[in-house]
């Protein structure tokens, strides 16, 4: 959410930003917000003036009564009553204008960084750099579910019976591999100086609307019926929410956190052949990174975050690339974002395995996350990035480390979590 003062003083900048995001239908919101802001300030000024008059008149009543000027005192009382009635209406109008203004401000997008490439959608995202050599082996790489089934490691049919489409049972070596990757990711981030958290897996609506746009909320979040609680789509939601309405001394910055959680997503609109199997699912687990920092440091930490993911995947011998998200692909709260994509030997292309985002002060403004410095308090900046999100990451892992005999190589960093195994062998 933008600062209303910034919008008031820079409406053309805000409108140009909306155009860059190809959301021209929102242009009218800028003028509406400015008009509502003016009405709101007028009402507040009228209220202040009337309260001052009321205070002055109330003092006069006592003096008039002391002078036995009863008629004048009664007239003053009537005036106070009239002012009170006017103030009631002003307070109602003020609340109405505040609500209408907030409604518009919440959907006006954050100002994107000037380095963000302009494009309509994800088809216009820009490749930044490749890490590792993408290899297509001479032998066939089966579909990831077939690889898992060769280890007797997945049961989609039973999951459909218990839960419906978009769920799965993992078992045996595949389940152990899944858990081992998460354990390695946890320790990988702890070794890089991040504090490990396991947060709540449900959050209140106040936090939901603080950490994401309404469009994201509608497409992602599952609501708990009868309660003001939502299942989280990522632990970023809980971790940022942890700091709602807080003021932290700036010398404690940055706060580097890494958090584990299950994630629950509707995945509205998911479709296509690669949505089969465990590519897009309603429930998965993830290790996340979250940073809260001073505004001037956020771009440096943004680069630190995506590099962590690249280093993690490369430590497991998986080729990846970074893809700069264009203006039209950025969610409304994001200032800048880069996807990390892993190589798929079977598909002969890259696919997303993580997303790194700098949200500037958008979440901090919505949630009241402030820092305290020598010159007073100010809004923090928030950033997040995926370390790893199996089972999607398992697709990249199994395809890239599959051997010709059907076994899967276990890279050295992962072996201590897999009981010392240097490979897992299919049972079918």
UniProtKB/TrEMBL annotation:
Domain Aminoacyl-transfer RNA synthetases class-II family profile: 143-411
Family matches, as Pfam families: Seryl_tRNA_N, tRNA-synt_2b
Keyword terms of this UniProt record: Aminoacyl-tRNA synthetase, ATP-binding, Coiled coil, Cytoplasm, Ligase, Nucleotide-binding, Protein biosynthesis
Domain of life: Bacteria
Coiled coil (UniProt feature): 33-100
Protein EC: 6.1.1.11
GO-annotated molecular function: ATP binding; catalytic activity, acting on a protein; serine-tRNA ligase activity; transferase activity
Chain positions of site Important for serine binding: 386
InterPro entries xrefs: aa-tRNA-synt_IIb, aa-tRNA-synth_II, aa-tRNA-synth_II/BPL/LPL, Ser-tRNA-ligase_type_1, Ser-tRNA-synth_1_N, SerRS_1_N_sf, tRNA-bd_arm
Protein name, per record: Serine--tRNA ligase
């Amino acid at each position: 959410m933008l600062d209303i003062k910034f919008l008031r003083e820079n409406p053309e900048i805000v409108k140009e930003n909306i155009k860059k995001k190809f959301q021209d239908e929102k242009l009218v919101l800028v003028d509406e917000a400015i008009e509502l802001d003016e009405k709101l300030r007028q009402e507040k000024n009228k209220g202040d003036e009337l309260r001052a008059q009321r205070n002055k008149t109330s003092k006069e009543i006592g003096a008039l009564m002391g002078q036995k000027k009863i008629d004048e005192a009664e007239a003053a009382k009537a005036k106070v009553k009239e002012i009170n009635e006017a103030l009631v209406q002003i307070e109602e109008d003020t609340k109405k204008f505040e609500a209408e203004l907030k409604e518009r401000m919440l959907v006006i997008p954050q100002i994107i960084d000037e380095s963000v490439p302009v494009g309509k959608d994800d088809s216009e995202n820009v490749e930044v750099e490749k890490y590792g050599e993408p290899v297509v082996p001479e032998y066939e790489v089966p579909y990831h579910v077939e690889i898992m089934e060769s280890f007797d490691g997945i049961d989609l049919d039973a999951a459909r019976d218990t839960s419906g489409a978009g769920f799965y049972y993992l078992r045996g070596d595949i389940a152990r591999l899944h858990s081992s990757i998460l354990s390695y990711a946890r320790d990988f981030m702890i070794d890089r100086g991040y504090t490990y958290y396991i947060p709540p897996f449900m959050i209140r609506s106040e936090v939901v609307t603080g950490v994401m746009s309404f469009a994201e909320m509608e497409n992602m979040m599952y609501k708990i019926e009868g309660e003001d609680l939502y299942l989280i789509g990522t632990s970023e939601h809980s971790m940022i929410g942890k700091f709602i309405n807080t003021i932290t001394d700036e010398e404690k910055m940055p706060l580097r956190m890494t958090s584990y959680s299950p994630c629950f997503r509707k995945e509205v609109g998911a479709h296509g052949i690669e949505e089969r199997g465990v590519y897009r699912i309603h429930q998965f687990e993830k290790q996340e990174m979250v940073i809260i920092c001073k505004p001037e440091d956020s771009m440096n930490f943004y680069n630190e975050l995506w590099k962590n993911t690249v280093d993690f995947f490369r430590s497991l011998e998986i080729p990846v690339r970074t893809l700069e998200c264009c203006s039209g692909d950025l969610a409304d709260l994001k200032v800048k974002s880069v996807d990390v994509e892993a190589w798929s030997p079977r598909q002969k292309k890259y696919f997303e395995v993580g997303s790194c985002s700098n949200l500037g002060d958008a979440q901090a403004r919505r949630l009241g996350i402030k820092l305290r410095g020598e010159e007073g308090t100010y809004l923090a900046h928030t950033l997040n990035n995926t370390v790893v999100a199996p089972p999607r990451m398992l697709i990249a892992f199994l395809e890239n480390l599959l051997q010709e005999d059907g076994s899967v190589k276990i890279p050295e960093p992962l072996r201590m979590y897999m009981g010392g195994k240097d490979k897992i062998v299919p049972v079918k």
